[in-house]
Amino acid sequence: MSRLLNVDNLETKFRTADGHLPAVRKISFSVDKEETLCIVGESGCGKSITSLSIMGLLPSNGEITGGSIRLDDENLIGKSEEEMEQLRGNALSMIFQEPMTALNPVLTIGYQLREPLTIHKNMSKKEATKASIELLDKVGIPDSKEKLDQYPHELSGGMRQRVMIAMALACEPSLLVADEPTTALDVTIQAQILDLIHELQSDIGMGVIFVTHDMGVVADIADRVMVMYAGEVVEVADVESIFENPQHPYTKGLLESVPDVDDVSQELQVIKGSMPGLNDEISGCRFHLRCPFATEVCKHKEPPSFEVTPTHYSKCWLQEVNQSGQPDTIT
């Protein structure tokens, strides 16, 4: 695989009455072509803000204050809104969590599907209509020709989400950012949507960033996993290593909080406490107030990102090499 996206020391802050507060704290990661990177963590960890930073869709009080975001070696930071509009829906697309807020309620499905095709592909209305029908067919929407004249409220939640996917993939993007696109759907429709994204990914060779808090979804679709906590990347590894050998206490806590339907005697674990707010100043490791393994060094010194293996990194002092020359592990 070849490298598609490189994010280096990305820092995103929000202007508030309390000053400029960091929501994303100098994070770095990459996505290869045809790769699915899942970003996981609790609400408020910074995963959605990371996605919006990449797309150039931050709210008016948000701004990128450092780092670089390179798509096919082209830095997206500093581009004008007009330049980003040329990229969005073309090389760069996004599926949002709630299609009723992302789709325009007063425009037909057909109009909203044709728009990126006429703007980015210079298609005529007739050509765009034909392509729109083909897109709806591809995402499994029946009676696709009739659906073009309908409005979003006339479709079910699953159908609206399929329309969003069709719009996102209309111009065959290099990178698809999916921000919890299946959260509001029942499990049957969710499975169909995930299969659809994977199938279309294989067809056009795009990279996928999939934002979720659902570790079951991660197990199904991820090639690599990036765990975020309080605006930082605390662990990143291939999906097998995350599930079989988690090295950060937060990752372990997330996995233990997933119920096992085959084990009725299992006691569901929880991560005590809550995610710190943007204006909470925490010295040392930002997770130490909730961590059952925290030591004195965790309270006063921020850990670096330790290499567990060449493809597995954990930002935790437990990885510091002990006197025997072996890294401490979580048991």
UniProtKB/TrEMBL annotation:
Belongs to the ABC transporter superfamily. GO terms for molecular function: ATP binding; ATP hydrolysis activity. Residues 5-255 form the ABC transporter domain. It is found in: Cell membrane. GO terms for biological process: peptide transport. It comes from the Bacteria. Gene3D superfamilies: P-loop containing nucleotide triphosphate hydrolases. It is a peripheral membrane protein. GO terms for cellular component: plasma membrane. The keyword Aminoacyl-tRNA synthetase does not apply. The keyword Transmembrane helix does not apply. SMART domains: AAA (SM00382). This is Oligopeptide transport system ATP-binding protein. Keywords: ATP-binding, Cell inner membrane, Cell membrane, Membrane, Nucleotide-binding, Translocase, Transport. It comes from Lentibacillus halodurans.
